[in-house]
Amino acid sequence: MIDLNKELHKHSAFKSFRPGQEEVLLNLFAGQNTLAVLPTGGGKTLLYQLYGAITHQRVLIVSPLISLMQDQVGRLQYLGSKRVVAITSAMDFKERTAILRNLSHYQYIYVSPEMLVNQSVFPFVAQQNIGLFVIDEAHCITEWGPDFRPDYLRLGAVRKQLGNPLTLMMTATATQPTRTDILQRMGFSVGEARQVVMPTNRRNIFLSAKVCANQKEKNDQLESLVSHLDGSGIIYFSSKSQAEQIAAMLTQKTHKRVMAYHGGMDNQQRFRIQQQFMNDDIDIVCATSAFGMGIDKENVRFVIHYHLPNNIQSYVQEIGRCGRDQQPSLAILLYEPNDQYLQLGLIENTIPEEQLLSYLYQHPNELEKNDAFRVIKYYYDTGKSFEEAVSIFDQAKKHRIQELEAIIAYIYTTGCRRKLLLQHFDEVVNNENSEFCCDFHSDFWGHWREFNDHYLKGVKQVKRQRSTDWHQILNNLFLLKN
Amino acid sequence: MKLSTLYLLCGDPDQFRRAKAIKNVLIGRRTVSNLYWGLEYDLLSYFGVLRNFSLGDEQATIDALVRAKMVIVDEGLLYKLTPEGQDKKQELSNSLGATKELTTVVKYDIVRFSRRFIFAAQVISEYSYANSQYYPQTIGFFDDQLIKRWFIQNKERQLPQYFHDLLENFLTSLNSDLLANIFVQSLSGHKFSGETEEQIATETGLDPTIVQLQWLKLYAKLFLQLHDDRLTPLKLLLSDLERPVMSKSAQQTFDLFISQNKFNPAKIAQVRGIKLTTVLEHLLEAAIIQPRGQFPFDRLLTSSLKTKLRDNQSKVDGEWQFQDAKAHIPELQFFQFRLFQILERKLGQND
Ligand SMILES: [Zn+2]
């Protein structure tokens, strides 16, 4: 029998496992395919890093975003694994060819689903012995979700072609229907895969929401919160330009150091702001939801949503980025009635209209030309008729609107927010702590500054004195031995 | 980079300039037309200087500059600086300083060099603290391998001391604390994450694009210094950064053209198995890029044709068009017209 705790100490700096990690590893070592639902910050990377380190086998990780993959490669290198590589569409042909030719040198291989099914890539991957096949962000397989990626649906077939390697599917939140869907799409029948599902509830996060009369009031409320809340924070937006505008506004009107952070930035900028945030050189990042999927900052004290999240699952994931250190933390959702139209507009934009669909079905060679048509192409290629496709997208739209309504119901609820959130995951609140739960049990909005003084201020945060003198900076950068 | 700042820097108060062509010159889109406008606007020595950057949309940028009353426009996205625009240009030029170093950026991939250097500095900074747990930057597969190889080959060479002394001396030699500060903020390393151009801009009052251009200039300067230092342990970081001044194919055409055989364009097309129009484009590229004395204009333009063209040009106000000349000289080909313009432009520059 393998001594997992001993291995943990040998291969990482962690003192103990987080909830669920050990159970997942035991399943894997027993040769069981596993679906793991571990909350954000639950240490998903460690699972396959440790499995690879102990067994010396090759690990293939399917991951949805380039930026996320780069963060993960960085994280794995940070954790001490050097033979890591990511195959992404951002690489040029020469670079990709060189990596594919040398694939056997790498123990951890990250790849996007689109790259993996690519005919110029797959044969190289298929030549390798894969000890563990990891599907990260496995909820992307769900057709009704906003993160749906059609190539995730091919992973079941890919797994067969790879000779059915041991498989680990991971996601941060998944309702029961989502979990069933993931297993079914991956080609597992009931009993063929184990499930390790950790509670979604994060007791150290206080939940609150506020309805503002209009955008002006929302901005004033945000400014006031940012001025007075202590510690690091993330503010989520649904558009890059808004993230930038509000970051500029907050920089101007508060004494906090605020930066925008989103997918439109280049690698260098992203890296720098990420590092500054990790090092507490900046207090707050204004981010789009793509941000932070791979960031691992322990002491984020609050998450504010300036725009509506896509759905309850995304909301739970996004607020999960605060309080990883288990210290008291705060989730705030700010809302003004126009926000729902913005969100509706986003839904309209991501779901093709019948007219476009009809045009593309008549001119299928156009489907190749735009990546935005990938989902349509998938249905076309799998033989769905025009009428079927229309109905599928219609359903998806209805589903997205229902999800939006669920979020709005969460905002306007007159009961316990935690209870309502957890209902979506078939969980109930145990050991209710009405003193630190949500703004239903007390007049939070009348006393949020006291809340801050009581819960957030106490958490020690080391503010480093930043040098602005270049001689000093050079001396600190390079430690010289005399 | 902000295209608006670049348009101001490359604009002129007297001449309407083509916004599209200027952007194409800066990002180095190599067509004869872009090269020609680069020559016309005296921007040829910056051809491709910003090829690593995305510059934004020209129409939206010009619209914004018009609203700000910095430029006036003519049809086809031609723009000219207003007096306010000219003042702003002057202010930006003053904060940018001399642009000679930017010509190094045309000849060498300085952005790539800076990424290698910044990554190497991070590795050495953490190494000097014996720290192996940190988030490395991502600079691409090949350069990643290069830095690994470089580190293994050189780690016995007191690299922390070397980096410290190199940068201390280099930054002192700038004689400007402002520039030295801008430079160090491009680095990252042990418990130091540097700053973005926006952050530096906020602190210094400079335009963020000027900060980026200063970085380019500073890294070009550092590159040249290391390039001349035969003993530097950073030699590997300087490899494979040359950029050819002419495209490979155009160079081959030009070599045949000036070879002892004195092949004419038709013969070159036949020898190389390419289209005559392609050969003519190659020759135009060479005529633009080569110094005037190096390109035998006389072999392609007879003196009688030159006289006719000069005569026609003097009668036209504003931008002289091929159609004007063709109406006057029916046998004229566009190739000859363009070549003549290049020659005239080069003669003018030497006055
Ligand atoms: Zn509650």
What key attributes describe this structure?
heterodimer, A: 482 residues, alpha/beta, Rossmann fold, 7-stranded parallel sheet, 20 helices, 13 strands, B: 351 residues, mainly alpha, Arc Repressor Mutant, subunit A, 3 domains, 3 strands, 59% helix, globular, binds zinc ion, DNA_helicase_ATP-dep_RecQ (chain A)
Q: What structural class do you assign from the helix and strand content of chain A?
A: alpha/beta
- The string of secondary-structure elements of chain B, in order, is HEHHHEEHHHHHHHHHHHHHH
How many domain units of chain A?
2
Name the bound molecules. zinc ion
SS element count, helices of chain A: 20
Protein name (chain B): Helicase Helix-turn-helix domain-containing protein
Organism (chain B): Lentilactobacillus kisonensis F0435
InterPro entries (chain B): Helicase_HTH (IPR029491)
Protein name (chain A): ATP-dependent DNA helicase RecQ
Written overview of the protein:
The complex is a heterodimer of chains A (482) and B (351). Chain A contains 20 helices and 13 strands. Chain A has helices at residues 4-11, 21-29, 44-55, 66-78, 93-101, 113-117, 122-126, 155-161, 176-185, 215-228, 240-253, 267-278, 312-319, 339-350, 354-362, 374-381, 386-412, 417-423, 448-456, 470-477, and strands at residues 33-37, 59-62, 84-87, 108-111, 132-135, 167-171, 193-197, 205-211, 232-237, 258-261, 284-288, 300-305, 329-335. In chain A, strands 3-4-2-5-6-1-7 form a seven-stranded parallel sheet, with helices on both faces. Chain A is globular, with a radius of gyration of 23 Å. The mean pLDDT of chain A is 89. Chain B has three domains: 3-96, Arc Repressor Mutant, subunit A (Orthogonal Bundle); 110-238, no CATH class; 248-349, no CATH class. In chain B, strand 2 and strand 3 (78-81) form a beta hairpin. In chain B, strands 1-3-2 form a three-stranded antiparallel sheet. In chain B, helix 1 packs across helix 5 (83-96), helix 3 (32-40) packs parallel to helix 15 and helix 7 crosses helix 8. Chain B starts with a helix and ends with a helix. Chain B is an all-alpha fold. The structure holds zinc ion (ZN). Chain B: It comes from Lentilactobacillus kisonensis F0435. Chain B: This is Helicase Helix-turn-helix domain-containing protein.
